[in-house]
Amino acid sequence: MMTIENQKKVKKLVDMRVTARLGGGQKRIDSQHSKGKYTARERVEMLLDTGSFEEMDMFVTHRCTNFGMEKESYLGDGVVVGFGTVEGRMVCVFAQDFTVFGGSLSETMSQKICKVMDLAMKMGVPIIGINDSGGARIQEGSNALAGYSEIFERNILASGVVPQISLIFGPCAGGAVYSPALTDFIMMTEQNSYMFITGPKVVKSVTGEDVSVDELGGANVHSRKSGVAHFKSASEEECLLLTRKLISFIPQNNMENVPVAECNDPINRLEDALNEIVPSNPNLPYDMKDIIRSIADNGDFLEVQPLYAQNIICCFARFNGISTGIIANQPKFLAGVLDCDSSRKAARFVRFCDAFNIPILTLVDVPGFLPGTGQEYSGIITHGAKLMFAYGEATVPKVTVTIRKSYGGAHIVMSCKQLRGDFNYAWPSAEIAVMGASGAIEVLEGKNIAAIANADEKAQYIFDKEAEYKDKFANPYQAASRGYIDDVIEPRNTRFRVIRAFQALQTKKVTNPLKKHDNIPL
Amino acid sequence: MGNMSQNTPNEIVAISLALYLTKKDSIHDYESNILTIKRVSSVWNSPVYNVLDKIKLQ
After folding, report:
1. Interface of A with B in 335-374 (CB under 8 A)
2. CA angle, A486 as apex, A485 and A492 as ends, to 5°?
3. Dihedrals φ, ψ of A406, to 5°?
4. DSSP β-bridge partners for residue A159
């Protein structure tokens, strides 16, 4: 039986916990709810397996005495940190609490975040940060800035070691944006979340531009235009579920092999529809996602940046239960051409997969790089080189299937044999060449064409020469004859061939030359 | 097969279907579709050992 003295001590603990869980108080919790937002603890509870969360540093308070801050203090000081599980796998979490000083970052708050990040690095588990903060706590001066810097440094050191995921459920402005920006994935909710370096007022005063918060840094802008956000959700609940799904595809750290799920989809499933998916007319589009659905386990995949640079698809799927990253050109959008945005998008995804031992499947249907001053002035050379660099340095198993077009520099960039592609397959519909027929004949036969005066004869000559070119190069066999393509496969067999290739590559071992680090063209 | 005009429409449909199915079946590239490679857990390419290999080389 507990003594009265001990009962008092336990009661004090219980009371303090109750107080801490109230954050900035019931009034502010109600205000948060009225905006359609959950509190930090509610979010953490929804994210993690029921009852798995263990909170740390619940009783931490700030130490600031400037501007009357010593009179106002809350247990936990504006951030909830701790660890729990997602489908039984441990993760470390921090969630900024908007009910305490608007979630503003103090010295102690940053210390709490750093502590849980250090724990994640020690344990080799993912870090999930939920951002909902007005920015630095101004009363703390440079202490707040130092706090940010401590977090950023940890983001940088953890990059490529443990997966880092940022959820933006409220404001995230100024320097604060750099912590999410340094992480692997950023998720935003359509309502209430925004990210920008400088807000609309500063924009107005500096550039005279009138812009709303949403137009400047809302979820739509960052998921469609800037590419800053990797996922956009209609609600916080949806975003938290998406986070759980994302976690299911990725290993806990860079020393762990990819997660393997139970596979109840037959590995030898034949998809006859694939034999007819590529239109006879090479200029007609089709939906690459139909191919992904047909070959992945249960047709299930999780697309990253689905609204940004839609001419390339980056997604996670499973083959025979093994998590795999897929990069695929999308003929339905800009004919699947490679441009600055799609190159950057795919390069980052390839590097994430490589860092975390996730095998890569590349599905190719690319007519080339997008021409024009717009692209050249935006640095298509550098951005294209990023993707080539990412593929070339990747040491994870790499399987490539060329579906239709694979022309010129874009052919090289899209995980060709010479960029250390392990298995390069092609469908019979593949066209692997320096360029398309009309462009090639213009170059090869330009003088002869110009010499023909009669228009009908000219058209016939061009038609014949293009037919000759297509006969030579609009197929996979010229490349296969040189061993650049390992095999030509019937489309309906693709699922089995991809699975067997990855199974064969499960013991692949390749190391890159020793170096301090590479110098990827950023 | 003789003169097609002597066949009833149903017979023509049946013959066409048979021809189609025969042709359809004959154009496939049949594979074994048997996966004989077992899943293995080996230190050969373990990420940990890859890092250690690099350190050893230094």
Report:
1. 357
2. 95
3. -150, 90
4. none
pLDDT for residue A520 is more than 70: yes
Whether A193 contacts A35, CB under 8 Å? no
Residue A415: alpha-carbon gap to chain centroid: 19
Beta-carbon contacts of A350 under 8 Å, excluding residues fewer than 6 positions away, are: A325, A327, A360, A387, A390, A391, A394
Same domain, A356 and A469: no
- Write out chain A residues lying below 8 Å of B20, CB-based: none
Q: Is B27 left (phi over 0), alpha (psi -120 to 50) or beta?
A: alpha
Evaluate whether residue A229 is within a structural domain.
Answer: yes
Chain A hits for B58, Cβ within 8 Å: 514
Q: How far is CA A118 from the centre of its chain?
A: 23
B44 contacts A514? CB cut-off 8 A: no
CATH at residue A97: 3.90.226.10
In a shared domain, residues A293 and A378: yes
Closest approach of B6 to chain A, Cα-based (Å):
34
pLDDT band at A169 (very low <50, low <70, confident <90, very high): very high
Both A84 and A137 in a single domain? yes
- CB distance B37–A503 less than 8 Å? yes
Q: Are A221 and A227 in contact (CB under 8 A)?
A: no
Q: In which domain, by residue range, is A290 found?
A: 272-434+475-507
**Which residues have C-beta within 8 Å of that of residue A343, sequence separation ≥ 6?**
A380, A383, A384, A386, A387, A413
Cα–Cα distances (Å) from A5 to A8, A9, A13, A494, in that order, read: 5, 6, 13, 72
pLDDT for B48: 81
Of B40, B48, B53, the CB nearest to A506: B40
Q: pTM of the entire structure?
A: 0.93
**Over the stretch B14-35, which tens digit does the pLDDT of each residue have?**
888 887 766 656 689 998 889 9
What is the distance of C-alpha A267 from the center of its chain?
Answer: 27
Query: Structure tokens of A122?
Result: 């020690």
CB B3 within 8 A of CB B15: no
CA distance A504 to chain B (A): 7
A319 and A226 in one domain? no
Give the whole-angstrom CA distance, residue A115 versus residue A82. 9
Residues A365 and A329 in one domain: yes
With 0-12 CB in 10 A as exposed, 13-18 as middle and 19+ as buried, what is A473?
A: buried
Nearest-neighbour CA in chain A from B29: distance (Å): 6
* Interatomic CA distance for residues A486 and A470, integer angstroms: 21
